[in-house]
Amino acid sequence: MSDPFLSPVPWHTANPGWYPDPWQQADWRWWDGRAWTGQLAASPRKKPFLPGWLSVPVLVAAPITVLLLILTAITSFIAIPLGLIPLLIVLPVLGWLDRVEPEPLSGRYHAVLWGATVAVSIAFIINSAVGFAFGDEVAAVFSAPIVEEAAKGLGVLFIVRRREIDGVIDGIVYASWVAIGFAVVEDMVYLADGGETGDLLVVFILRVLLTPFAHPLFTFWIGLAVGLAIARGRSVFPYFLWGYALAVLTHMTWNGTLVLSELVNEGIVLVGILVFVCLFAIVVTALIIARRRQQRLFSAAVPWLAQRYGLTENEVMLFVNWRVMLSYRRRLPRAQRKRFDAVHAALARLAVLHARPVPIDRQTEEVLVSDLHDARYG
């Protein structure tokens, strides 16, 4: 099979009369899912002040996390590498889930950093104050779920503001990236505390090995809600509120189980783990079904995308068959694989854009077509 990127028909040549629809230049807010990217091309692209993996909130909160990690390393240096182990377990799963419509690395890195800095800083300050005033049990059962899920939820909303979420899977993936960034730092702190009290092995087994998906499972509901709002063309905030409520409820139930096991009977924690294993299995099954559906929709949209955007016959043959596409991608050198992924991502986002039950935003389409053109010729 010849290289599909050799001499493709330029989109602008295939569509010489195309121009943005002035009707689409309405002044929508970023949280309105009916035009989630309505402002993408409202003004010429400017060079960003910060790289995509950074933001002002992350920079402001980073010193608190750095100080916390330094204190943790002084207390128990082994807590740092042990706390990184969940990344080895969770990230491959998120990569698999994100394969159909791959998100930019900069966006994923920023989501992790938000969880590890902004969410950690907010939670550390407020939970410490509540624990000091009312006791650690109250902080664990009430303050932690409410504050931590709010802080992680703000990260998801910030990503919506950046126009990086365009569907259900995207919402879940980004929420999970934020959650795992938070969980890694939190695990390091708990491991250090366990080292001081002689419970390091117990904390390691419970938090690192048995429940690495705990925080992604909590924040899953926020990502699901926000992704549904955007996919259905609805306003984000009402959906966010019920997603946040479910995240808090799930988190509160888990923390309450742990506290009861310490105060009443240690066997309660086994019941809690069993319940959450069942919930995790249900969520995983739903995600597998959703991913397969997204994969089928993308493959079915490729011929139509080819006609609209002037893809070559070889490109259609590659992207219309999922197994052929993955096999071809694995054989590419690293540099070409990056370019191939960029084409794939642009096509997938265009497919999602056209699948929305709302009028197509021509300005957003123009930006995505530009991304596709840059990826094919870059």
Task: List the topology elements.
Elements: H1 11-14, H2 56-75, H3 79-83, H4 85-97, H5 105-134, H6 136-161, H7 168-197, H8 200-210, H9 214-231, H10 236-263, H11 268-309, H12 313-319, H13 322-331, H14 334-355, H15 362-377
Helix pairs in contact: 2-5, 2-7, 4-7, 5-6, 5-7, 6-7, 6-9, 6-10, 7-8, 7-9, 9-10, 10-11, 11-12, 11-14, 14-15
Task: Walk me through this protein's architecture.
With 378 residues, the chain is mainly alpha-helical. It folds into two domains: 24-43 and 295-377, no CATH class; 56-280, no CATH class. Helices cover 75% and strands 0% of the residues. Helix 2 (56-75) packs across helix 5. The longest helix has 42 residues, at 268-309.
Question: Could you give a short description of this structure?
Answer:
The chain has 378 residues and is an all-alpha fold. The protein has helices spanning 11-14, 56-75, 79-83, 85-97, 105-134, 136-161, 168-197, 200-210, 214-231, 236-263, 268-309, 313-319, 322-331, 334-355, 362-377.
